[in-house]
Specification:
Helix content is 2%, strand content 36%. The chain contains one helix and 15 strands. The relative contact order is 0.21. By secondary structure, it is mostly beta strands.
Length: 275
């Protein structure tokens, strides 16, 4: 983590450029280099894996794998590496940060997917704020969650994720998928509850942020900004993974779980905000 701040492994239909390495923007607003996104502008794009804070390796459950290559929308793997500091490279020193991938040519029946939940928004000066997002699973698929990962920058205190389902009486039950202090190693952890997620359920995430800054902090890519991300890794027993790869909201101060149009109620406010 003293070299690479974090890394993201994208699955792309087409890469952002034909070059073998390139500046993928975000961190380099002042750069004069040509920039391109990790995946092409009209290409399939999903995040397969993410790493930060000296996280150990991730092993998938037996018989579970990500489908890539032939008959898959993922034709390319693109590794995006974010560096917090570049001073150590200015004398020509190189870096070999990366990801080791195990693969098989034997098709696996259990296909893995990653759903990234996150927010936009801002955090007021000298305040505690909740950054929240939620999406309904509308596709007729049964998801078996098995791992989750949280990510914020320095202001994050707690990140929690839930499956939300209405019972026979119409009361929403919030089942925790995972909850972490985001400043611990940002690896994939086993989910708290591996019960299936089905069509009609919601997935919901809250990041509790506490700012001691005398300025507003916007969501953005650098350490001067903030992020609220929750990666949910799951598999399906048959068929394809979700078409929905991302679930983002506007975030505070425009979006909260308690807004009337979210359809969410019975919210576990204290549990979702404390470790």
């Amino acid at each position: 983590m003293n070299t690479a701040h974090h890394m993201l492994l994208y699955g792309c239909g087409e890469p952002g450029t034909a070059k073998s390495t390139w500046n993928c923007g975000e961190m380099a607003q002042n750069s004069e280099e040509e920039q391109a996104s990790p995946c092409g502008p009209h290409s399939h794009s999903q995040i397969l894996y993410a790493w930060a804070r000296d996280a150990p390796r991730l092993g998938l459950p037996p018989g579970v794998g990500f489908k890539v290559g032939k008959d898959s929308p993922t034709k390319y793997l693109v590794l995006q590496v974010h560096y917090a500091h570049v001073q150590k490279f200015q004398d020509g020193t190189t870096d070999d940060s990366g990801v080791f991938i195990e693969y098989t040519e034997k098709p696996l029946k259990k296909l893995a997917g990653t759903l990234l939940l996150g927010t936009g928004g801002s955090i007021p000066a000298m305040a505690t704020e909740h950054m929240e997002t939620a999406c309904e699973i509308s596709e007729n698929k049964v998801l078996h969650p098995f791992a989750y990962r949280v990510h914020t920058h320095g202001l994050g205190k707690v990140v929690s994720g839930y499956r939300v389902r209405s019972n026979d009486r119409g009361v929403q039950e919030w089942t925790q998928l995972g909850k972490r202090d985001p400043l611990t190693p940002q690896m994939f952890y086993n989910v708290t509850n591996a019960e299936p997620i089905e069509s009609g359920d919601h997935v919901a995430v809250r990041c509790t942020m506490k700012s001691n800054r005398h300025r507003v902090t916007e969501v953005g890519p650098t350490n001067e900004h903030e992020m609220c991300n929750f990666y949910l890794m799951y598999y399906v027993d048959h068929g394809e993974t979700l078409d929905m790869k991302y679930c983002f909201s506007q975030g505070a101060p425009n979006y909260y779980w308690s807004n009337p149009d979210t359809g969410l109620h019975n919210i576990p406010h204290i549990e979702a905000s404390t470790l």
